[in-house]
Amino acid sequence: MGYTTNWQVLNAKDFGVPQNRERTIIIGALNGVKFDFSKLEKQNVIPIKDILEEENDSFEYLEESDYTLIENPKRQPSGLIFIGYRNKNIRIKGTRSDTLHLSRVHKHPNRIYSSEGTRNLVLFISLLKG
Q: Any keyword Lipid biosynthesis (predicted)?
């Protein structure tokens, strides 16, 4: 067929994406042309807190009875801090509740993460209550 193919495992975090996600990239070209992966420019990761919106009309505000904070928050490799759980299942408006996620398993769908720990969450909730 005349194609030259080459491949390399690339990580999204090397290209500014706040995810540690490796993917095999395969490039094919005609007439013996080879793709030079070494020419790709790596970029710094953008911290996830820099891209998250601070306010949005679709935000769901939780009552204190809706969540449980853990005593010892744990920083994840992503930089987010695991701070607690929702006390009920997460449901998104407009989706079926029995939808299966076949592409991947969500081991902990009710976990709550923060980029700054529990202090801001508690402060935020107390501000909401007035």
A: no
Is the domain of 28 the same as that of 68? Answer: no
Distance (Å, rounded) from C-alpha 51 to C-alpha 89? Answer: 26
Predicted TM-score (pTM) of this structure: 0.47
Q: Do 15 and 41 fall within a single domain?
A: yes
* Interatomic CA distance for residues 44 and 18, integer angstroms: 9
Which residue in 82, 80, 79, 86 sits closest to 61, CA to CA?
A: 86
- Domain extent, residue 33, equals 3-46
Taking CA atoms, 65 is separated from 74, 90, 93, 120, in Å, by: 22, 14, 20, 18
62-115 pLDDT, tens per residue?
777 887 888 888 887 767 777 887 777 656 566 565 555 555 545 555 666 666
Look at the chain and report how many structural domains it folds into: 2
Q: 63 and 122 in one domain?
A: yes
Give the contacts of 66 (CB within 8 A, at least 6 positions apart).
Answer: 86, 87, 88
DSSP codes joined into one string, 7-47:
EEEEEGGGBT-SS--EEEEEEEEETT----GGGSPPBPPPP
